From TrEMBL:
Record protein name field: GNAT family N-acetyltransferase
Alphabetized UniProt keyword annotations: Acyltransferase, Transferase
Residue ranges annotated for the N-acetyltransferase domain, each copy included: 1-153
Keyword Lipid metabolism: no
Taxonomic source organism: Naasia lichenicola
MF annotations from Gene Ontology: acyltransferase activity, transferring groups other than amino-acyl groups
Lineage: Bacteria, Bacillati, Actinomycetota, Actinomycetes, Micrococcales
Pfam short name (any one): Acetyltransf_1
UniProt-listed InterPro entries: Acyl_CoA_acyltransferase, Bact_Acetyltransf, GNAT_dom
Length: 153
């Protein structure tokens, strides 16, 4: 297995995997999102990057990541947004290889941590995560944009 930076030539295989990722998380099919994320990955002014796992010449997994600043510690970490292995390659160590590569990248770039979230009931992925990382006690919240017609109070 080879873990490497994504290239423009990977679009078709990556897009198929990204569609599978979105389906896994029950997100509506949306080719505009796929194209937008693809352009983000290749736009130097946007922090989103991607690694791919290649097995027997096929892209079988990906990791989307970016740097994030950590004011409390005065450091910069790597935030893993998305990690996915195609169904045919599951059990082949793709996820662990991608995570290990991110750990090495963090070390070579002087980053303080590689961090991500996952669903509490994602037991299959969590077995992999527990091999390479430490679960934290933090709880995640989402605050959605508040749109008001008038002035803020």
């Amino acid at each position: 297995m080879i873990i490497r930076d994504i290239s423009r030539d990977d679009f078709d295989q990556w897009a198929e995997l990204f569609r599978g990722y979105r389906e896994f998380y029950r997100l509506s099919p949306d080719d505009d999102v796929i194209l937008r994320v693809w352009e983000w990955i290749h736009d130097e002014s946007i922090e989103v990057r991607a690694l791919v796992a290649v097995l027997d010449g096929q892209v079988v997994g990906f990791a989307h990541y970016r740097s994030f600043h950590r004011p409390a510690s005065g450091t910069v970490g790597i935030y893993l947004d998305d990690l996915f292995t195609g169904p045919a390659a599951r059990g082949a160590g793709v996820g662990q290889a991608l995570l290990t590569s991110l750990g090495r990248l963090a070390g070579s770039e002087g980053r303080s941590v590689v961090r991500w979230i996952t669903a509490a009931d994602n037991a299959t992925a969590r077995r992999v995560y527990d091999k390479v990382a430490t679960a934290t006690p933090w709880v995640t919240y989402d605050l959605f944009p508040i749109r008001s017609a008038g002035r803020d109070a």
